[in-house]
């Protein structure tokens, strides 16, 4: 995956012009509670994840990329931070191992990360026997059973040279 160029100067220029962060625009619309209270509460994110996200917004850097990739992927998805989302998807792709493959597939599905989902499915397909023995796979089977079909669909569509469709048999 190619991480997009940093547009920090453009984004800070938007901040100056609009006097608040573009990703939070909807929260400051006149009919929203945040606009009436002159304060914003974010309850669905840990403080350290929020701090990391804000660090990225202001600096274009994500120093704790490897430590909180899954939480930051959710934040980047929610607040439409495309560059951050790509950076974290890239970090998750490089951390694909047997034990994490199912967890990463779940994250990719939850946060519309199609390329990450494809890479997870490909990894699972190449290591299916081993991945099926992991605790994360067993957890995914019970919590997100629809992803099992996604994970094994590519395997089912592979043509086996020894398997001949029944229509091709000639009865004599």
From TrEMBL:
Entries under Pfam families matching the protein: BTB
InterPro entries xrefs: BTB/POZ_dom, SKP1/BTB/POZ_sf
Entry's transmembrane regions: none
Upper classification of the organism: Eukaryota, Metazoa, Chordata, Craniata, Vertebrata
Domain BTB positions: 22-61
Stored PROSITE patterns: BTB (PS50097)
UniProt-recorded name of the protein: BTB domain-containing protein
Domain of life: Eukaryota
């Amino acid at each position: 995956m190619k991480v997009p160029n940093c547009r920090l100067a453009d984004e800070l220029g938007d901040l100056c012009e609009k006097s608040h962060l573009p990703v939070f625009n909807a929260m400051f619309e006149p009919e929203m509670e945040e606009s009436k209270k002159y304060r914003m509460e974010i309850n669905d994110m840990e403080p350290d994840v929020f701090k990391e996200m804000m660090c990225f917004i202001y600096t274009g850097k994500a120093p704790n990329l490897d430590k909180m990739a899954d939480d930051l992927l959710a934040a980047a998805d929610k607040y439409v931070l495309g560059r951050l989302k790509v950076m974290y998807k890239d970090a998750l792709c490089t951390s694909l191992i047997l034990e994490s493959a199912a967890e990463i597939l779940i994250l990719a599905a939850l946060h519309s990360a199609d390329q990450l989902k494809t890479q997870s499915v490909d990894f699972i397909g190449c290591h299916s026997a081993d991945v099926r023995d992991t605790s994360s796979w067993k957890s995914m089977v019970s919590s997100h059973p629809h992803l099992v079909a996604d994970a094994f669909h590519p395997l089912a569509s592979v043509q086996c040279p020894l398997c001949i469709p029944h229509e091709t048999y000639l009865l004599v």
